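step=encode ok
step=design start
structure_in=
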């Protein structure tokens, strides 16, 4: 839609983007972001830290931004009560969050990516199903094969197990078991 809007223009402006990085990021994620920057003509501002302070910094640099596209889905943590267009919560910088894939399921995302040959981060082919930093992200144990290797993320069939390779999710489940 963006490129169609500018199809008769002499110059297409780059799409503004924010990349909030984790401490100790995967080099494969950083490489994928660089590839996307070129492929999709993105103007990426990279800010390390957590989302709220990063968003504050970003909006100080880009005060004309009024809305952001977010890849949250309904079954993601804190995604259950969101709507397609949701203003930020109280105490956050005021901006409209747009959730274009909110009601898509894990398997639908993979079907879309694979059927249209949309490039994705190589880590998903190595058994990762949810990416954070090297400090809190592991291959999903549900994808481990008997030979010790891992199946790609798109082979995961139970979307409730998507975040089983994330340390904070593992810890929450261990706490529930202990109770």
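sequence_out=
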């Amino acid at each position: 839609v963006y490129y169609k809007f500018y199809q008769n223009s002499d110059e297409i402006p780059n799409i503004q983007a924010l990349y909030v990085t984790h401490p100790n990021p995967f080099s494969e994620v950083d490489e994928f972001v660089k590839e996307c920057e070129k492929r999709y003509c993105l103007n990426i501002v990279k800010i390390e830290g957590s989302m709220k302070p990063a968003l504050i910094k970003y909006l100080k640099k880009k005060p004309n931004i009024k809305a952001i596209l977010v890849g949250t889905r309904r079954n993601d943590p804190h995604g259950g009560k969101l709507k397609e267009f949701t203003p930020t919560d109280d105490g956050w910088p005021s901006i409209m969050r747009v959730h274009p894939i909110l009601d898509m399921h894990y398997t639908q995302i993979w079907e879309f990516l694979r059927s249209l040959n949309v490039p994705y981060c190589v880590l998903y082919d190595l058994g990762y199903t949810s990416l954070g930093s090297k400090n809190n992200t592991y291959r999903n144990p549900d994808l481990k094969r008997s030979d010790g290797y891992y199946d790609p993320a798109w082979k995961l069939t139970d979307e409730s197990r998507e975040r089983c390779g994330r340390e904070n999710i593992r810890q929450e489940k261990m706490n529930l078991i202990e109770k």
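step=design ok
step=annotate ok -> The radius of gyration is 18 Å.
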